[in-house]
């Protein structure tokens, strides 16, 4: 019988169908095992099977209604289903349960940005930065929101601070950059990766980000990823 480590390995390799088969098999003998439901829910969401993913996250929260991580993951699926009011409410609840975690603020900021509450997103990124002044990702993503609002000087300061924190040194050039690629958000919830393409007028995370990655906890890993996307895609003129 397949084990959970094999399923997780396949999931990380992007072999979602194979990973799903393993977790379906494991769940036949342990139908309410939280770790199994969590991974299957994430796999299903990555495959675009959002209603099925939501069912797994509903089961998780029924078993543990005060788990902020389960609630946050469920909020992402709700957002992909365009149930944004419910998604925001869930992120509020996750933050109330885990108020000392700056990631709760940056997660909510991420959603507020996507649903058009740009000032609210900046407020939440500011709080995340206040709690963790070395969080380059929050500085980077705050700069993106400031750019959308036309706050050019503020966005430049945010981007420069993010660069400094991760040790990124822009290459000098004699010629100005022509039509640079937009600076991507440096952190994306796991379920938002590889979502099925949608029409241009529909909300589509896969269309919005050129490069995505979930980089949590390890500051060195964050720095490596941030430097990588900067070097590959370039930075928008600020």
From TrEMBL:
<dbReference type="Pfam" id="PF13181">
    <property type="entry name" value="TPR_8"/>
</dbReference>
<feature type="region of interest" description="Disordered">
    <location>
        <begin position="167"/>
        <end position="203"/>
    </location>
</feature>
<dbReference type="InterPro" id="IPR011990">
    <property type="entry name" value="TPR-like_helical_dom_sf"/>
</dbReference>
<dbReference type="InterPro" id="IPR019734">
    <property type="entry name" value="TPR_rpt"/>
</dbReference>
<feature type="repeat" description="TPR">
    <location>
        <begin position="68"/>
        <end position="101"/>
    </location>
</feature>
<dbReference type="Pfam" id="PF13414">
    <property type="entry name" value="TPR_11"/>
</dbReference>
<keyword id="KW-0802">TPR repeat</keyword>
<feature type="repeat" description="TPR">
    <location>
        <begin position="102"/>
        <end position="135"/>
    </location>
</feature>
<protein>
    <submittedName>
        <fullName>Tetratricopeptide repeat protein</fullName>
    </submittedName>
</protein>
<keyword id="KW-0677">Repeat</keyword>
<dbReference type="Pfam" id="PF13432">
    <property type="entry name" value="TPR_16"/>
</dbReference>
<dbReference type="InterPro" id="IPR050498">
    <property type="entry name" value="Ycf3"/>
</dbReference>
<feature type="compositionally biased region" description="Polar residues">
    <location>
        <begin position="191"/>
        <end position="203"/>
    </location>
</feature>
